[in-house]
Amino acid sequence: MNPSPGDAVRDHDAVRYGSDSRSAFNGTAIRNGRNPYPIGLFAGRPRPLYVVREELFWSAALPRLVLVSNRVSVPDAAGKGTAGGLAVALREAFRAYQGLWFGWSGKVASQPASQPRMVDKGRVQYALMDLTSLDRQEYYNGFANRALWPTMHYRVGLSDFSRADYAGYLRVNRTFASALAKLVCPSDLVWVHDYHLIPLAAELRALGLTNPIGYFHHIPWPAPEVLGTLPGSTDLLRSIMDFNLVGVQTERDADNLRRGLIQELGAIPQTSDVLDVDG
Predict the structure, then answer these.
(1) Of residues 169, 166, 171, 197, the one with CA closest to residue 66
(2) Are the beta carbons of 58 and 51 closer than 8 angstroms?
(3) What residues contact 6, with CB distance under 8 A and at least 6 apart?
C-alpha cells in the first residue's frame, strides 16, 4: 500500500513517512536550512512519495511540469523529436502533464542568449537557449564531458580539469537559471536532468525560487573517494542540497551520495532515513 498524505506526520524541520515508506521510497531524507522544503534521495524508480511540511504537500497532482535538460527535443512537423533515450523518456512525461521543456537548442550563436526562443507544440512549450562557441567549449565539451563524466564513471585517469572550463560550466548554469526563473510559475514542479545541470537548483534558489525542484542523475554517482579527486566536487555536493528530490540509478549510487554528504559536508545521520546538513 502506498503512503497517502494522511500517513505522513507533519513536522516543522524533518520529513516523516508512512508505514510503507521504506519500500515506497527506498532512500534518505535530507534536511537543510537553506532549502525551503525537505529533500529526498531515491534509487531507481520510486512509487508515489508524499512529503508534508506544515500545510504544504508535494504530490503528482501539480498543474504544470517544467523539464530542464542539456538538450531539448522539439518535435518536427510529423510529431517526431530527436532520437535518444532521455529525449524519449522526457517526451513521455508530457503525456500526463501540460508543460515547459527548457534547455540548449543545440545551436551555437555569436552572442550569448539572455532569453530563450519559445516554440509552442500542443500542450508543451519549448524554451530554447543558444550557446556561444565558448560556452559549448567550456560548459559542454569541457567540464561536463572532459572532467565530470569520466570521474563519475570511475575513469579518473581520463578526467581533464581546467579552471576555465569549470567557470564556464557555472556560468552557463547561471545563465540558464536567470532565463528559466522568468518562466516558472509559483505552482510549477521543476524537474532537472543530468550532470550538466547539477548547480541549477542552487542558482534558482539564489534568484528566490521556492518551487519544488527535482533532479535525476542519469550516470553513476561515484564513491566519495573518487568524486573527491575532481576540483569543485564539494561545491557540486553542496549544490545537490538545493534540490528537493534527487534520483540516482542504483542503491549503490544512493549510498555513495549519502557517504559523500556525510564525509564532505559533515551531514549528521539523525535516524536511518534522515541526514541533517547545516548551512
Answers:
(1) 197
(2) yes
(3) none
**27-40: pLDDT as tens digits:** 566 666 566 555 67
Q: Could you report the per-residue pLDDT of 6-57, keeping only the tens digit for each?
A: 232 222 222 222 222 232 334 566 666 566 555 677 666 543 333 333 333 3
Rounded to an integer, what distance in angstroms lies between the CA atom of residue 86 and that of residue 191?
Answer: 13
Q: What element of type H or E holds 53?
A: strand 51-53
Instruction: Retrieve residue 57's grid coordinates.
Output: 504537500
DSSP secondary structure, 182-244, as one string: TT--TTPEEEEESGGGTTHHHHHHHTT--S-EEEE--S----HHHHTTSTTHHHHHHHHTT-S
Closest CA to 183 of 207, 202, 199, 214: 207
Q: Is the dihedral of CA 115, 146, 264, 14 positive or negative?
A: positive
Which residues touch 83 (CB under 8 Å, ≥6 apart)? none
pTM, 2 dp: 0.81
Count of C-beta atoms within a 10 Å radius of residue 194 = 17
CB 166 within 8 A of CB 187: no
Using DSSP bridges, classify how beta strands 124-132 and 117-121 pair: parallel, antiparallel or unpaired: antiparallel
Of 161, 121, 120, 170, the closest CA to residue 142 belongs to 161
Tracing cell 579518473 back to the chain, one arrives at: 156
